[in-house]
Design a protein that fits this description.
The chain has a domain of about 30 residues. Strand 17 and strand 18 form a beta hairpin. With about 475 residues, it is of the alpha/beta class. Strands 1, 2, 8, 9, 10, 11, 17 and 18 form an 8-stranded mixed β-sheet that branches. Helix 1 runs parallel beside helix 6, helix 1 packs across helix 9 and helix 3 runs antiparallel to helix 4. The chain is globular.
């Protein structure tokens, strides 16, 4: 196993975000047999938004949310908290995959972020929401060309951005590694654990039951109802929502639609104003570079720097073992790239390091549908963009369960299905091949024949 440097001597190998939330008594697991109008499997972003929005539509319904763990222990509480104004994994992805409805997808993504902020304020959720913008930075000639292409694509859809060179760039981020940047103002950030707990409190205040440590092992037909089978007990529901995202889907038909990709982050100790000034990072904006193997970075409320990404690890057989949430090889690589980007911070220690699982689809966006004769709705495949897109997905699933035609349900992005991943061992070979070609493109600027073919077929791979 890779040995970590002295900068990890006091590191907590656990997510930082849950430490910012006051611990509370555990919500009791479900026991016995209960009946409800709507059962929701999963209490992450997708499940909690679904519950809250279902209550707005159906004030008298009995709604029950089940989670296999404790709140914020899974993917939602391990994310970077980047709240994009997009439901389609960005403007470029929308334009490339759904050109006929790209304008609508971009508009709906921006509206969704506005409405999410309004909901957070209306329900009094202290999620540390801040709309402070994102700086995209480029390192190589071909990445700089990509930034200009990105700006042109954004402009087609009325999204304002600004190309920054020195000294303007140095006023937002001063790193010799990145000579050019593209700043987009309409981008937000949240503390993901505080958002999860805030949504849960709002649900509880609305009379929605939440049961932690209540793992659903199967879904069965039970006459007019669905029966959710647990290790101890069962829940009978008229309708249900499957919001398990990166976990192994309970519906077998969905298991090849996503792959679990492991993504990792390290976080510094709190930095002083002098340390931040030395790297030119005076604002509250986030940062992401333009590589296929990309880094993302942001500040916390107490001025730590989160540095994540680069490695996107798939394990043979779609393994989801708990020990895979830590990987010293990736922590060491992240330390190396952090130091190369911010040499003046070369002695800063890392307070936290952790991994999370991303439910990656072959088109980089979520998809939604129904099963059991329209009584169960599902959404998954968020591919690292779930902080905001989960809210839109929740509304889409509720539309499907209610049997109503809306602009959401009319979208091809919602109605179509991603290309399934092949079975093993072809899956591991294909993902490894794609990752090697993406890394080569980062080094050379050359996009391989296989990647160009994937582009033509509408197949992507990312995190």
């Amino acid at each position: 196993m890779t040995r970590l440097s002295h900068r990890f001597a006091t590191t907590r190998f656990a997510p930082f975000w849950p430490e910012t939330v006051a611990r509370r008594p555990e919500l009791p697991p479900l026991s016995g047999s209960l009946r409800c109008d709507l059962a929701i499997i999963g209490a992450g972003f997708t499940g909690l938004w679904s519950a809250l929005k279902a209550r707005e539509r159906h004030p008298g319904a009995r709604i029950v949310v089940l989670d296999a763990r404790r709140l914020a222990d899974a993917a939602s509480g391990r994310s970077g908290g980047f709240a994009a104004p997009s439901i389609s994994h960005g403007v470029t992805n929308a334009a490339g995959r759904w050109p006929d409805e790209a304008q609508d997808l971009v508009r709906l993504g921006r509206e969704n972020l506005d409405e999410m902020e309004a909901d957070i304020r209306a329900y009094g959720i202290d999620a540390e929401f801040e709309r402070t913008g994102k700086l995209n930075v480029a390192q190589t000639r071909w990445q700089i060309e990509g930034l200009h292409a990105m700006q042109a694509s954004y402009a087609r859809f009325g999204v304002e951005t600004a190309i920054l060179k020195r000294p303007e760039l140095a006023a937002r981020l001063d790193s010799a590694r990145y000579p050019v940047g593209l700043f987009e103002e309409n981008y937000a950030f949240v503390n993901p654990a505080r958002l999860v707990h805030g949504l849960a409190r709002a649900c509880l205040a609305q009379g929605i039951a939440i049961h932690e440590n209540s793992k659903v092992t199967a879904i069965r037909n039970d006459g007019p109802d669905l029966r959710l089978v647990l290790n101890e007990g069962a829940l009978h529901a008229r309708r249900a929502i499957l919001a398990t995202n990166a976990d192994l889907p309970l519906l077998a038909r969905l298991r090849r639609a996503i792959v679990p990709i492991y993504d990792y982050s390290i976080m510094t100790e709190p930095l002083s104003e002098a340390q931040l000034a030395a790297i030119g990072w005076r604002g509250r904006h986030g940062v992401a570079d333009c590589g296929n193997q990309f880094h993302y970075s942001r500040k916390t409320a107490d001025n730590r720097i989160l540095w994540g990404g680069y490695d996107a690890i798939y394990h043979f057989g779609a393994r989801r073992d708990a020990e895979l949430l830590h990987r010293n090889e990736t922590y060491a690589k992240l330390e190396e790239t952090f130091t190369a980007t911010f040499p003046s911070l070369s002695e800063v220690r890392f307070s936290h390091a952790w991994g999370g699982v991303i439910d990656t689809s072959a088109r980089l966006t979520f998809f939604s549908g129904t099963a059991f004769g329209g009584r169960l709705a599902y959404a998954l495949g968020f591919t690292g963009q779930g902080v905001t897109a989960t809210r839109f997905a929740a509304l889409s699933m509720l539309d499907l369960l209610d049997g109503v035609q809306t602009e959401r349900t009319g979208l091809r992005m919602i109605r179509s299905r991603p290309v399934p991943f092949p079975p093993e061992p072809l899956r591991s070979l294909a993902i490894g091949w794609a990752q090697a070609d993406l890394a080569r493109e980062d080094r050379t600027g050359h996009r391989s024949l296989m990647l160009r073919l994937m582009d033509r077929l509408g197949i992507g791979f990312g995190s």
